[in-house]
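#struct-help
A.M.: can someone run this one for me? Single chain, 226 residues.
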Amino acid sequence: MAGVFINYRTGDGATAAVLLDEQLKGVFGSENVFRDRRRMAPGEHFPPHLWRALEDCSVLLVLIGRNWLSQCDETGRRRIDVPGDYVHDEIAAALKWRRTVLPVLIDGAALPGKEELPADIAELTVRQCSHLRVPYAHLDLPVITDVLRRHVPVSRDKSPEPTPEPAPAPETPASGCHRLSGFTFGDGAAVNLGSGGATTNRNSAVSHNGDATYHENGGGKNGGTS
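D.P.: on it. Structure tokens below:
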């Protein structure tokens, strides 16, 4: 049993749920992070799938925004009190099964008081919480991830970084020689610093023409007509 189940209420924490999902699946593997909109296909009979995922998880993240407790249904009842409310039922089941339950307070939301919650999820108020500020998710997500590493194994299904090939060794010139760039002095005549050690010279513009070897004792330099 390992994995993270993201519990959130539509309209109060959905954006944070996506941010957490993207962060956590990259660390623990997409198969070990459950967010309903990603893991369940359209038209799927979701209750059995949902409860299987909850049974398999080791950590339940409860995302609590500023309107999490006050959201009501069309009759004016708080949704957290309505029988069959999935947010309530997932929390109640995870507490009953003694999973790790981590409240995540979104953008400065407060953790509800014990007397504000239904009795079967009141224990949520004595769980240590984390904070996620959506505009500063780049700072807060790594903190939450580090907490979860204590409970969920990191995915090993990652491609290893490629090993760079060693750079080729520089060419070593022969003893007694210096490596020089060859030149062609165009204008109808050329200067060639060749392997024979001689230099022919005419005044002209310069263009590069590959490497040459100049032997210091290869017979000296012959000056051409200027």
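A.M.: thanks! The radius of gyration is 36 Å.
D.P.: also worth noting: Residues 92 and 121 are 5 Å apart (CA to CA).
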